[in-house]
From TrEMBL:
Its EC number is 5.4.99.25. SUPFAM superfamilies: Pseudouridine synthase (SSF55120), PUA domain-like (SSF88697). The gene is truB. GO terms for biological process: mRNA pseudouridine synthesis; tRNA pseudouridine synthesis. Keywords: Isomerase, tRNA processing. Belongs to the pseudouridine synthase TruB family. Type 1 subfamily. Responsible for synthesis of pseudouridine from uracil-55 in the psi GC loop of transfer RNAs. It catalyses: uridine(55) in tRNA = pseudouridine(55) in tRNA. It holds the Pfam family TruB_C. This is tRNA pseudouridine synthase B. It comes from Streptomyces gougerotii. GO terms for molecular function: RNA binding; tRNA pseudouridine(55) synthase activity. InterPro entries: PsdUridine_synth_cat_dom_sf, PsdUridine_synth_N, PUA-like_sf, PUA_sf, tRNA_psdUridine_synth_fam2_C, tRNA_psdUridine_synth_TruB, TruB_C.
């Protein structure tokens, strides 16, 4: 087996297939990269496809910071049916004729779910309630409530409205939508809440994540392609794309590597993590401003 020292540090942008959990993809990548040090920056539901950001070796230190970045999706919302999971994976719990729902009502419902909102995550989800996964509580038949939490939906756009009939004959409306949102936003919860606001119920029938922070589908590779040729985005390139860049001279670069908290320019104050680069272009660390000085939050060199 290849030693971990020969595995390149960096990010792997995967185009996740439907039917795979995020953990399934991580397990697959461990085999491809021949290392246990693989993690992901935020889960993607099994039904969903698209961008899943993985970190290999030292790049796993980037993941917690990347998980907080903005995400973009393309999906289909079906109005007229509720499901247990708020998506097509779960059994249908109610059907209501949605043929009388007009475009103006749809647009008003979408507008109400755009901006800074309070959202209750789907019960069949990986969110933890008192230390226990919500989906586990559901499987065990527990009665419980999930508190609403703040999320930001920067953009919620309806591109097409199609009248259709569900398998049980119920007239439904399928909405082709795109969403740009903050980390922690559940697109299937948006589908559920839109359907509830319109009085006919709703769930998500298709979802594709098209972007995580600066990483889009153009950089993503299928697992089959990655098995043929492992494409790793070096830490320096990944950090430069996702975080503000701070270039240091040799002397200050050595100080940072030795754990010294050097003075930080005011321009980086309050910006969150900043990538620190040496004169050779290597990303040495992610730092945050604290009382005017650079505090390392992840070190790569």
């Amino acid at each position: 087996m290849k030693q971990s020292s020969t595995v390149p540090d960096g990010l792997v942008i995967v185009d996740k297939p439907s039917g795979f959990t995020s953990h399934d993809v991580v397990a697959k990548m461990r085999g491809i990269a021949r290392t246990r040090r693989v993690g992901h920056a935020g889960t993607l539901d099994p039904m969903a496809t698209g961008v899943l950001v993985l970190g290999v070796e030292r790049a796993t230190k980037l993941l917690g910071h990347l998980a907080l970045t903005e995400k973009e999706y393309l999906g289909t919302v079906r109005l007229g049916q509720n499901t247990v999971t708020d998506d097509a994976e779960g059994e249908i719990t109610a059907s209501t004729d949605a043929s009388d729902i007009g475009r103006a009502a749809v647009d008003a419902g979408v507008a109400a779910l755009t901006g800074d909102i309070m959202q209750v995550p789907s019960k069949v989800s990986a969110i933890k309630i008192d230390g226990k996964r919500s989906y586990t509580r559901v499987r065990e038949g527990e009665e419980f409530e999930i508190p609403a939490r703040p999320v930001t939906v920067s953009s919620f756009t309806v591109h097409d409205v199609r009248a259709d009939k569900a398998a049980d004959g119920t007239p439904v409306l399928d909405l082709v939508v795109s969403v740009v949102c903050s980390s922690g936003t559940y697109i299937r919860a948006l589908a559920r809440d839109l359907g509830a606001a319109l009085g006919v119920g709703g769930h998500l029938t298709a979802l594709r994540r098209t972007r995580v922070g600066p990483y889009g589908l153009d950089a993503a590779k299928t697992l089959e392609r990655l098995q043929e040729e492992l494409t790793v985005m070096p830490v320096a390139e990944a950090a430069a794309a996702a975080f503000p860049r701070w270039d240091l001279d040799e002397r200050r670069a050595k100080l940072v590597l030795n754990g010294v908290r050097i003075d930080m320019p005011e321009e980086y104050a309050g910006q969150g993590p900043v990538g620190v680069f040496d004169p050779a272009g290597r990303c040495l660390a992610l730092v945050e401003e604290q009382k005017g000085r650079a505090r390392s939050v992840a070190v790569f060199a």
